[in-house]
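Limitations

Structures in this collection are predictions, not experimental determinations, and the ligand pose is part of the prediction. Treat each record accordingly. The example that follows, with zinc ion as the small molecule, is included so readers can see exactly what is and is not provided: the inputs are given verbatim, and the output is the predicted complex.
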Amino acid sequence: MNKPKRYTVTTALPYTNGPIHIGHLAGVYVPADIYVRYLRLTGNDVAFIGGSDEHGVPITIKAKNEGVSPQDIVDKYHAIIKKSFEDFGISYDNYSRTSAPIHHETASEFFKTLNEKGEFIEETTEQLFDEQANQFLADRFVTGTCPKCGNEEAYGDQCEKCGTSLNATDLINPKSALTGNVPTLKETKHWFLPLDRYEDFLKEWILVGHKKDWKPNVYGQVKSWIDDGLRPRAVTRDLDWGIPVPAQGGEGKVLYVWFDAPIGYISSTKEWAAREGKDWEPYWKDEDTKLVHFIGKDNIVFHCIIFPAMLKAEGSYILPDNVPANEFLNLEGNKLSTSKNWAVWLPEYLKEFPGQQDVLRYVLTANAPETKDNDFTWKDFQARNNNELVAIFGNFINRVVVLTNKYYEGIVAKPSEFQQVDEETMAAVKAYPDVIASSIERYRFREALNELMNLARLGNKYLADAEPWKVIKEDEERTKTIMYVALQIASALATLSEPFLPFTSKKLKSMLNVTLSGVETSWNDVSTKEVLLPAGHQIGKADLLFSKIEDETIQAQLDKLKASKKANEAANKTVEPQKETIAFEDFTKLDMRVGTILEAEKMPKAKKLLVLKVDTGIDVRTIVSGIAESFTPEEVVGKKVTVLVNLAPRALRGVESQGMILMTETADGKLVFVNPDDATVTNGLQIS
Ligand SMILES: [Zn+2]
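Predicted complex:
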């Protein structure tokens, strides 16, 4: 493509059954935001489009579990997600939702067009049906074994382990997610998009046409699907939550969420254009528009095969120029998981690190899973903040602004003649816009951010080597030049950091007083303008851009994750299977009595054992019990307990134990007395 006339940039529609976490931000939203902010700074016409995905099965399951309506669920999470994006500076031109009327209308029209053109196959097939729930099972309503990789927890639409896109009937040993029942097969009619008809088109367009410019992970996944052979895919579902199928025989059916969701990009663009008084069509139909979809790797099949096939079938739309999907981000070595609460949630982060959105944006970009899965660790977060943002970027800016205020009352001094180091430094600064731009345009945001930090390193080193705080004692003119050059670097950083660190950039621009005074520079100005901050310009006072993060703060985050892990382990603890059945006569052999603990003391040199004196109603006897890790002696004295009194006595560490106190153990390992704890129950009563 020649230089595009305009850009349409979309981000995967987050699914509204929960808030969003760092994995979403790192994989999709921060890279997309860097890209569009850069495009705007370089004077391009951009529509940055997003929205919430509010249809589909998981929302209906969540609503059912919580006893509310699906609309309640999506209203709640749409608001939370939208706010998180605003809080983290994701600079959408429009953020819509798929329950909006404009989307229902757009998706409905899209379906009708394809239906009228004969692009669908209508077929009555046997689908999985849950007799008890009286409902067809597809997508997340059914789990089973993936026929490709053997994962036993694959869903009816996709295996999350190997990424294969599935039909529910492909699953081996399917099980209803609603009732746990084994489903039966029942006939129902659906509309199918015959993907096999698009194989040649997809081969030509992607495998030949985008061999060089698409990321290898994306290209590889697409190639393997096409090589496997594509099959017709149902675009409708038997469900009551979604967009009704606008065709005869469509009663009680809705559009498959993966048919309607990507059309959400188009609806959201329409909503934006209507509000801004623009025409939406060139953003989707003009060949001079560059369309880019930012997504995570689990969405590749939908954006590279199904949606392009839909657009191609419709006939009047352009195709994406690139789909720079990222791999996954892990957290402290484990897969991020909403259900296991193994995540850093954005609303929580903001509460615990107020005003530090850019630190998270920075770390997630520096460590982005661009080519392989990557790990987020709190130690790395702390190290990158303290050693990079504070020690390099922040330190440089602080010195420049503080010294300029100290020496020249905040006025940019007039430089004297440049020495070689000054000339070289200024030339190096002017090269950065192109270097960073080249990385951004190839979707290499880690590399781009590293180049930005190299500019900060250049400034930091220039100042440390030139030592104006020493030079000022003997050479005032030289000091003016040093401070002048350092201020130009600071100004370049203010502009070039904007895509990555928008809050910092804004603060820095305000510190340098470039926003109000009309000397704000564009991206290209950094290369082309002779001077960014002219002599005589008045800057403001110093304000810290970043602050050190202490060990305690990091430890608190690690403790929180540890608590999540423990809770998960407790929840996953398996229930022991039932033992072999016994005859009633065997049970009657057990003589269990109610008793009271009269005395208790620790068994010397035994961590787990307490020596108890127990009144069993028959006698007062000694019982040794392994409860010392859960109770102190003081806690158990006076307690009513259940005792197995006719257990053969045995010696424990030289003390004869005459019976056993019945205990149980909770999921998190705490012992609890099995106890008829009632004042009217007297000692010696039989348990039967
Ligand atoms: Zn699989």
